[in-house]
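Hi X.,

You mentioned you wanted examples for the new student's onboarding notes, showing what a folding record looks like when two proteins sit in one file. Here is a clean example. The first protein comes first, with its sequence line followed by its structure tokens.
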Amino acid sequence: MEILKKPILTEKASALTEKSNRFTFKVDHKANKLQIKQAIEKMYGVNIVAINTMVVDGKAKSRYTKAGFVSGRSPKYKKAVVTLKAGETIDYYANI
């Protein structure tokens, strides 16, 4: 099971990083806070102070096509907001 799927690089997440040293990741739906903490500390070599997790509901999507009106949902996902120790940072692009 791959716990960390990808970092979330939105304007809101970037503002959170600049303001309070918090980083946001999309994680596996079955992962708990301890597993997320171990995965991030192993991958990035940082010390984590706190982790907040939440399940984000998928948005309703609809469009009109030649076949008619099509509606559905984007999938839900689990998000983890990680607070790091003061002075530490995560470089998302170091592992590429």
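Then the second protein repeats the pattern, sequence line and then tokens:
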Amino acid sequence: MAIKVFIDGAAGTTGLQIRDRMAAETQFEVVQLEGEDRKSPEARARALNSADFAILCLPDAAAREAVQMIDSDVRVIDASSAHRTSKEWVYGLPELSAEQAEAIRGAKLVSNPGCYPTGAILLMRPLVDAGILPPSFPAPVVAVSGYSGAGNSLIKEYEDARASGADIAPLRGYALTMGHKHLPEMQAYSGLASAPNFMPMVGAYAQGILLYIPFHASALARPASKDDLHAVLSRHYQDSPFISVQPLIEAGSTEYLRPDALNNTNKVHLYVLSNADESQFTLAAVYDNLGKGASGAALQNLKLMAGV
């Protein structure tokens, strides 16, 4: 018998990507609302409660509303930021720790990670747990994402400008008052005592994230080399099918990192970078904001929860 999945918000960017990724997963049957039912709260409630799993691809307020409609045993994956630090919800990052995948597998309520926090947490949490980064680490996080992560209005703005040849900013810094909604999530699951200093940007390309965490060696809890940092991350992710720690890049290299290098996958590449005398380090992550940063992670969690 097929496993029934209702995607609430299936017409949005994340919902459409989940549908596309599920196309090859024959064990799942997508519950769909047709015609006028798409506008009916009653039909939506029936769909939510008739499924084995519901994936919420909605704004935060609508996601909370959807949860209130559920009165059955349906299991929920919420792709919004509404429940990411709620104690009643399991955080949907299986690679967080040895126990996290099992917690997701047995959970009724799973909150999908945000796109930016995914890379920041994957880089910092193993180093905090290993005692190399202190919980007091004043984490600077600098990241650029494709415009697909910024919602339908900005997607339309960029794509209309591209079609018409109109001028549009090649790169936008935003959240300039330092109050980005991902900060509580980054702090909570990185193991930090205070929120990172986060500077996000949107680039004039569709999808893909490049995230940097630069710091001086004096910020470490104890002396450590780039080899030490690399070894900790490599051990933590050695059994992960999606997270890979890339080889160290030697001084003088002309290599560069592309934010779109892993588009349309669920993969993450992690890097440890340093200067020649290892007095300065940068941790880096490359991944698809619509993949491991959204729809790919949702499908990964769905398959864990469904046992497939």
